[in-house]
Design a protein that fits this description.
By secondary structure, the chain is an alpha/beta fold. It is built from 5 helices and 5 strands, in the order H-E-E-H-H-E-H-E-E-H. Helix 1 runs parallel beside helix 5. The model has no long low-confidence stretch (mean pLDDT 96).
C-alpha cells in the first residue's frame, strides 16, 4: 500500500485523540512486507494519567505485546508529529526500520529538530527517517487544537 494510506490512518487516530481532549497525535506501526498494521494508537497521556503515554510509546508497547518480543526489527512507524526525545529513544530501542512523520516540531521534536537524537554518538540504532508525509494535514490538526485551547482559556 502507499505510505499515505498509513499516515491517513495515523491522522484518524489523532482525530480520535482530539475528541478525548488529548493532543492530536496518531501513530501506526506497519509490517511493510505484508502491509499489515501491527499496532496503532493516539496520544493517551490524559486518559491514562501517564506523561509517557505518547502515541508512539503506546503503539510500541502494543506491537511488542502482540508479537511477543521486545524488538520491532523490520517494521515501519508512521506518526503525525516529529517524535520527542523520549519517543525517538524508544523508536531506536525498538529497532524500528523506517520512521515516517508528518509535521516537524521545532519546539519538542528530537529527530530533525532539537537534539537530533539519531545523530548523537550514543544512539545505537538509527531508523531511516522520512519527513513531511501529509505534512499540511498533520500540522493543521495540531494548529486547530491549540487554537481552540487558547480560545477557551482566554
Amino acid at each position: 500500500m502507499e505510505n499515505s494510506f498509513y499516515m491517513r490512518r495515523a491522522l484518524e487516530l489523532a482525530e480520535q485523540a482530539q475528541i478525548n481532549d488529548e493532543i492530536p497525535i496518531g501513530c501506526v506501526i506497519v509490517d511493510p512486507q505484508s502491509g499489515e498494521i501491527i499496532a496503532e494508537s493516539g496520544n493517551l497521556s490524559q486518559y491514562a494519567e501517564d506523561a509517557t503515554a505518547h502515541a508512539e510509546i503506546a503503539a510500541i508497547r502494543s506491537a511488542c505485546r502482540k508479537l511477543g518480543q521486545n524488538r520491532l526489527r523490520g517494521l515501519d512507524m508512521y506518526v503525525t508529529l516529529e517524535p520527542c526525545t523520549m519517543c525517538a529513544a524508544a523508536i531506536s530501542f525498538a529497532r524500528i526500520e523506517n520512521l515516517y512523520f508528518g509535521a516537524a516540531d521545532a519546539k519538542g521534536g528530537a529527530v530533525v529538530s532539537g537534539v537530533k537524537f539519531y545523530e548523537q554518538p550514543t544512539c545505537h540504532h538509527r531508523p531511516q527517517v522520512h519527513q513531511g508525509l501529509l505534512e499540511n494535514e498533520c500540522s493543521q490538526i495540531l494548529k486547530d487544537f491549540f487554537k481552540k485551547k487558547r480560545a477557551k482559556s482566554a
